[in-house]
Amino acid sequence: MIELFVRLIRRPQGLVGVTLLALIAIACLFGPALAPYAPEKIDFLGRFRPPGWQNWLGADQFGRDILSRLMVGARSTVPMALIATFVGSAAGAIIGVGSAYLGGRTDEAIMRTNDAVMAIPGLLLALLLVSTLGNGAGNAVIAIAVAFAPGMARVTRSVALNVRNQDYVKAAIARGEGAVWIIFREMLPNVMAPIVIESTIRVSFAVMLFATLSFLGVGAQPPASEWGLMVADARQYMYQAPWGLIMPSTAIALTAIAFNLVGDGLRDALNPKDER
Amino acid sequence: MIPALAIKNYTLDYATAAGPVRVLHDISLQIGPGEVLGLVGESGSGKSSLAWALMRHLPDNAREIAGSLHLGDTDLQRLSPRELTRIRGRRLGMVFQDPSTSLNPTLTIGRQVTETLIQHRGLKQREADALAVDLLGHVELRDPAAIMRRYPHEISGGEKQRVIIATAFGCRPDIILFDEPTTALDVITGARILELFARLRQETGVAALYISHDLALVTRVADRVAVLKRGRLVEEAPAADIFRAPRHADTQALVQAVPRPERRLVHDKPGDEILLSASDIEVHYGRASLFGHAPPPATKSIGLDVRAGEILGLVGESGSGKSSVARALTGLASFSGKVKFDNQAITAARDMNAAYRRDVQIIFQHPDSSLNPRHKIGEILSRPLKLYGGNAAEIPRLLEQVRLPASYAGRWPHQLSGGEKQRVAIARAFAARPKLVICDEITAPLDVSVQAQIIELLLALRAATGTAFLFITHDLNLIRQIAHRIAVMRRGEMVDLLPAEDFDAEHVHPYTRELMAASPVPVG
């Protein structure tokens, strides 16, 4: 584990990614304690105050400090997006590999069903699920996971089809291994690289999807300082106070970049052929 | 007289994270005008690096430490990129190993041939078209005008290699580098390509550097042979002498490793008891779609039986269905027909129970893909032990059995060489204590010397365990050394099934005779 971490931070991308993720993690853990203001403290004299010594990243339409809101909001944004992506990716990966392994008509049946689910836009599906299950962060996580699974299944299956034709899988079939062993131990480790990369990209989508759900009123509710909600709120004041839009967007983008960099680094570090 | 190509004291390093690795030590070679020099060496001996150095297409981490490369009176190392494009193809041709990857799949053959001619000989499109048809006809391609309009996937591997050779010769270079041009082709096609090469060479008098790992083959095409071992030149001699009187120990080992049918390695007789008998085996790939019929079976009612402790050879060119038979017998492909093993009748893959799976093991051709890259050797070997009874404590014994150190259990597959990986695959098969091992071209990707070691190992394991082998190969000389009986397949049919001694007899099938002619016995 330590060896893996050392290999990860030995490259500049890995190091930058890990540093950014560490900052995000600190914000998630200690955000409320470190924030200079309370996230909901309204200051009418400081409405739309540009970034400066009073409010480092500026203030929004109620004069609330954007930096403080971002630091507190990390907690309600990043972990949720992570869990949703993880659950969705895991489910999709297992469906994809299983489908590729079984092959023939079973594969056909699974993938056509999958395509049917994919035909429904992700947001619509998530909305449908949340409105069925009821509002709340937990249900939003489930909804996003379900919306992500089919796409992951497609990506995974295309890689798994190659792996399925490798001789080590044939050797496992020829010696009479069970399907569970072949799917989880022979095939899954060899399709991990694209899964890891695809999921790190999807973390940022998950953040945005949460924001959209919040915007539509089924996710986080105002005055919560969820990042996506902050973007949605600041939208109408874009010309007066662009920082209200830029700062949370940057936070989302940096989070996405951090996950991407770490994902790339992990792919290299996890590769046993990499000996540098 | 200026030699066509002169390499003088050439030394090459690759810079790696672990420090520089020397791949070529002080190489000096000369090729006279019209001469063919054969360059022989195992994989990793640096022969391809030398070819790339001559083409000036070395990877970024290559460091040329010393020496010079001269093409005629041109110093190759001093050329600018612009001058290089005029040299490559025009004065220095190259024919690569794998014809399927050296043609662009999105352009027609005609376009690729004429483009080269226009570029290097300054011809007009019309002249180039005429010359291309002429050249393609000259390499014995039927209906060259039609070939010109086709795409690479529409012609066979042998035809592709002919197109590449025609293009290389068409630019009238001073010298052509051949990097294992027949390795990716099957025996008969390869033999035809060699005949073509000999004829073109006589007609054009071009000089050539012919790189191969196969000493027997090189002595047939080259005037002189140079032997490369770990980046050092160990011997250089006229082709006629090197086989008869190799001076250096490494050359002697190479000569020794070349399979010769008259030197039998197996002297016992198999038992009379029939272990496995297969009859009317037809292997089916794909299934009937809604609007189409299923493709025809890959094999046409094959019948064969393997006796206890017997080595049965199965030979044929690529696409003859010999691997399909192996897949059917291990339940990897659906088949119709009957298999009888140990008095148990099997008609489909689902009839193969744990006992059958244990008794019949398969070893695949490519050791790189038959070992899971994410599993350590110890884990790979522990699976059959877990499935068929046995415990992990046996792993050191299994490794020792295939003459690998027990410490290899903690290694990853990519840390092993090709031959070592194949040993692990053999150990995995023998972990089950099988009665029959199916070897599907297991020595094809290996060097001749490694091949000899693997064969010796298999025979030693057979002596210790009494296992029978179904040995699938395209190398007739090799199989005639070890098999008790040999089956010959062609286009899904079995044309011959003879005891190994009877191959010199009169009554063999014409195809078998053709196969024997294509794999001549080395002289000396």
TrEMBL record, chain A:
It comes from the Bacteria. It is a multi-pass membrane protein. Keywords: Cell membrane, Membrane, Transmembrane, Transmembrane helix, Transport. CDD domains: TM_PBP2. The chain crosses the membrane at residues 12-35, 80-102, 123-148, 200-221, 241-263. Its main location: membrane. GO terms for cellular component: plasma membrane. It comes from Bradyrhizobium huanghuaihaiense. Belongs to the binding-protein-dependent transport system permease family. It is found in: Cell membrane. The lineage of its organism: Bacteria, Pseudomonadati, Pseudomonadota, Alphaproteobacteria, Hyphomicrobiales. This is Peptide/nickel transport system permease protein. GO terms for biological process: transmembrane transport. InterPro entries: BP-dependent_transpt_permease, MetI-like, MetI-like_sf, OppC_N. Residues 74-263 form the ABC transmembrane type-1 domain.
Automatic annotation (TrEMBL), chain B:
SMART domains: AAA. It is found in: Cell inner membrane. GO terms for molecular function: ATP binding; ATP hydrolysis activity. The keyword Cell membrane does not apply. Gene3D superfamilies: P-loop containing nucleotide triphosphate hydrolases. The keyword ATP-binding applies. Residues 7-255, 276-516 form the ABC transporter domain. One of its GO terms (biological process) is transmembrane transport. CDD domains: ABC_NikE_OppD_transporters (cd03257). It comes from the Bacteria. One of its GO terms (cellular component) is plasma membrane. It is a peripheral membrane protein. PROSITE patterns: ABC_TRANSPORTER_1, ABC_TRANSPORTER_2. Keywords: ATP-binding, Nucleotide-binding, Transport. Transmembrane segments: none annotated. InterPro entries: AAA+_ATPase, ABC_transp_ATP-bind, ABC_transporter-like_ATP-bd, ABC_transporter-like_CS, Oligopep_ABC_C, P-loop_NTPase. Belongs to the ABC transporter superfamily. Involved in beta-(1-->2)glucan export. Transmembrane domains (TMD) form a pore in the inner membrane and the ATP-binding domain (NBD) is responsible for energy generation. PANTHER family: D,D-DIPEPTIDE TRANSPORT ATP-BINDING PROTEIN DDPF-RELATED, TRANSPORT ATP-BINDING PROTEIN. This is Peptide/nickel transport system ATP-binding protein. It comes from Bradyrhizobium huanghuaihaiense.
